[in-house]
Structure formats: C-alpha cells, structure tokens
C-alpha cells in the first residue's frame, strides 16, 4: 500500500513537471527578445524541472519504503531514519549544485534551519554550500566584463588572477591589481544568473508548491515569496555597494562607540557595475576559523562579543540589517589602529562582506523586536507574549516563537537565572532541539507562514549569528546575551524618548535606565563570580 502511494506521488510529480516544462518553454519563446537566451532557457529549464521532480520523488519514496513497517520509537527505526536523512540530504545537495544559483541559496538557508529540519540536512548543507559552490570559467568571466565594461579583465587591470579565491551562489571573487597598484577583490556575477533567475524561481516555486500539495504540513511557500523579493536586489551589485556605504555611515552616526571596530571594504566605483563589483582587498580570517584567529593574537570570545554587539546595534538601533551574516561573509582582523594588550592580545575588527541582502525595519517593528529581546534576556513572560503577538506570532504560538529565537524550551526561556538562554553546544542540547523540531514541525511551519517576511529575515539572521557564535565558543555565552540585553534595552529607552519628549517621560525613562544599569551590573557580577569559580576549579 505504501509503495503504491509513493508511485502515485512520483507520477503526480512527473505530470506537474511536464506541464510546467511545456508552459515555461512556450512563455519564454513568446516573450523573449533574445533568441539565444530563449533557446538557453528552453533547454535548461526542462532539465532542471526533471531533476527537481526526480529528486523529490526519490526522497519521498526512500522515506516511505525504508521506514515502512518499523515501529515508531524503536532503535531500528531511529537508525534507519538517520541513514535516510543522510541519503536525502546528499541528494538535495547534489540537486542544488547541479542547478546552481537560486538552488544554492535555498541550500544555504536550509543549512540554518536547525529548529525545523533534521541535523543531517543542516550539517550536509553547512559543510558544502558556503565554500564549495560551482565556479564560472574564465571565458565566462571575460564575457561579463565585455558586456559591462567593454573590455576583458587584462585590459582593465594591471593584474587579474583568472582563478577565483571564492565562489558563492550568485557570484565569484577574483584578486586583481588596479593601474595604480592597489590590490582589489573583484566580484563577478555568474553568467547564467541573469538569464535563468526568473525561470529558476518558477521551478523552485513549483517544487515547493508540489511538496505542499503532497505533504500539507510541508509549507515553505513563504520562502519562495521572500526569494522573489530579495533576489533582484542581490543581483544588483551597485545596490550592494550603496548598502556597504550606508551600513558604515549608520555606525558612525548612531553607534560611534564601536564604529572603528566594524568595517566594510571600500568600493572602486569607476570599475563597478550592476554585475561587477570592485572592492578593496582585505586580509582577514573567516569568522569561524578559530585557529587562524588565535594566531592573529585575538581572543575568540572577544570576536563573539563584537559580532553580537554589531548586529544588535543594526537590529535595534539602526533598523538597517545585514541579513546574510554566515561565516563566509564575516572576516576578522586585528584592529588596524590597536595595540597589543598586556598579555599580547589584540582587539578584533569585524569586516562585513556581501551587502546584497539588507532589510529595513520600520519604527514599530524595530521597537517591538527590541522590546521582545529585552524581555527574553530578562525572562519577562508577559512582555515576551505581548511583543511576540505584536510581531505576528499570535496568542497561540508566542511561546514557540520565543523558543525559535532562543533555541530554548519555554521553561528555560522564562527561567530567571542569568544563564537561562545559554546553549552549551553539547550532544544533549542538539538532541533536545531536534526532538522539539520533530514534535512541533506543523506548528513551526504555521508560525513561519504567519510571520511577516521582515521577521522571517530576522530569524534567518539570528540563525546565522547563532552558528557563528557556536563556532567561536562551542556553544553560546552569557556575555553575548548580556550585550544583546543592553543594546535592546537602550534602544527601547531611546525610542520612547524620541516619541515623547515631556519632562515626565524623561523622568520615567531615566528611572527605567537606572534600574536597567543596576540589573545589568548585578548580572555581570554574577557572571564574573561564575568565571572565577570555574577558573579556581580548573586550577585545582
């Protein structure tokens, strides 16, 4: 019975893919002004749709056939399920690499959804999707240069390395030297992106909608909507360049106390276009490269604090947020103007790369999001509920929303202990998270469908930052949460003052800030006590 069901599923997928292939081809031929592009799309889109349908059917059949007859909760079922998860994750990985572009972006996003998808998928995608993306040939790079600047790279630069130092889903980066000898990084968009982006989006939409039709609890349609809005912005490198300027300007104006500790490469506007971006080349360690960071004389806990503070300032004060802070987009180097401390340690500077995906938070969203994080840090259950509802979680799913943001169960979220949100990164912690993900899958899917897209991007950003912190500290730290609590609380206070400048409001806010500082100080003293006790236990 199970086998017949899955064969029917495969047949449905095949019929849907065939129908869309015919429709997509006809639409392209009728609307395209470029016959070569039309021919390319008509040859690639059906192939990708076929891959999608075969992969989806293969994965669905593997789960049904392999788990058929195995008792729920048995050791044998858990073992087989792990093997199926791993096989399916590799099939999905292969599909993403073969199709490229948008599919790799999709794979990267899946690699951050540890609260929703099995660990095998998360690990497989994280290990491959950031640094092992397909590479465009040098001839294809020259093709982009000729279209954008009218010349090949060797005519524009003194030196241009034809082998890229990095390749991502939408572009790859080459090292070059300008005519005046400046070392630069040149980001070149993959040639197929412009031609196939719209068609790729249609095929991804078909895959997601088909899976939702077959398995109603699998509802990722919100992700397709987000990709439809964000992809055109990510493909415009001039917009990316403007974002890099704006984010630094925000730090200088709104967060001057850490402005020197956050940097973005300078843009060379005369050799940049919507598909080519030439930037200052910066030597630095990738933020998750703990070994190299330590060799630079920088403490990893200081890097974790800087990352937490920089993004807290963006979210809660600036309202202009870098929404793709995975490890490949964050570099660390010693602060150029800094000196070594007494123990030879150096202060870190955070380098922000890839500024294609930013989100602006309006005043109400920024205020409510800051208020929510303040409530989470200080375990204020009523405020958590109030602000979660304001952000769209609803009265029935606010506790789940808090759990996804913190990756902690509700009883830990509202625990008044100073370290109640700390994740130790142990196997026990991971098993607990996976158990909750499996248990509340349908509710999580409903929550993601319900939340505004701007909050979904904040969740994605939060997931990336958690992954970075975990790599730096092998878990999380009370200090990073303390920083988030401090920045979010001060942002709430500043927002209140900006809306009401009366003396009584000022007095009320002043008293609130006084209480906040006292509370933060008491938490800091407690954390220092814990650190001292740990240090003494190590010494004995």
Low-confidence stretches: 1-11, 13-18, 24-32
Largest sheet report: 5 strands, antiparallel
Compute the number of helices. 21
Number of strands: 11
Q: Hey, roughly how much beta strand do the residues contain?
A: 5-15%
Nearest-angstrom radius of gyration? 25 Å
Q: Alpha-carbon distance between the termini?
A: 64 Å
SS-based class: alpha+beta
* Apparent shape: globular
> Helix content range of the residues, please?
55-70%
* Mean pLDDT rating: 82
- Assembly status: single chain
Protein name: ABC1 atypical kinase-like domain-containing protein
Organism: Dipteronia dyeriana
Keywords: Signal
Signal peptide: 1-26
Explained architecture:
β3 and β4 (183-189) form a beta hairpin. Helix content is 64%, strand content 8%. By secondary structure, the protein is α+β, with helices and mostly antiparallel strands.
Short description:
With 540 residues, this protein is α+β, with helices and mostly antiparallel strands.
Write the layout of secondary structure elements.
Layout: H1 2-31, H2 35-67, H3 75-99, H4 102-110, H5 119-129, H6 138-149, H7 153-156, E1 159-160, E2 166-167, E3 171-177, E4 183-189, H8 191-214, H9 221-234, H10 237-254, E5 262-263, E6 276-280, E7 285-286, H11 290-295, H12 300-318, E8 320-322, E9 330-334, E10 348-352, E11 358-360, H13 363-377, H14 381-390, H15 398-406, H16 410-413, H17 427-439, H18 441-450, H19 453-473, H20 478-499, H21 503-539
Parallel strand pairs: 5-10
Antiparallel strand pairs: 1-3, 2-3, 3-4, 4-6, 7-9, 8-11, 9-10
Helix pairs in contact: 1-2, 1-8, 2-3, 2-8, 3-4, 3-5, 4-5, 8-9, 10-12, 12-19, 12-20, 13-14, 13-20, 14-15, 20-21
